[in-house]
Amino acid sequence: MKDHIQITESDYIQLCGLINSQRNLKLTEVKNLAFLGAELKRAQKVADEKLTPGFVTMNSLIEIQDLDTGRFMQVKLVYPKDADFKKGNISVLSPLGAALLGYRAGSVVSFDVPKGTKRMEIRNIIYQDETSSAEPV
User: What are the structural domains of the chain?
Assistant: First the structure.
């Protein structure tokens, strides 16, 4: 059974619009969209101001750990137009981005990559738009 995930109503609306606007996609992109769509369908939607702290939302800055290599990374979950892997900006349409959305700190997420399945633990939510008053450092 999958863990409970939670997303804000505004993220839900924007992400559904993003999914519906995609055209001329490669097969891998279609799979990523299908995965994200399935996650959105099962997510508990909450008003932005009622979001429980500690859940990954759009524009969250997150510390994750690759459970296969032990490597730690800081990533920011962003919309595709803002994605830049070298800067740590991970698109919500990527396998990792779609897997992170809606999970809380302490959760282990898994996602498929060409060489198999990766597992990441969400170690910390460093910054989250809905519950932070200051910009991330």
Answer: 6-129 (3.10.50.30)
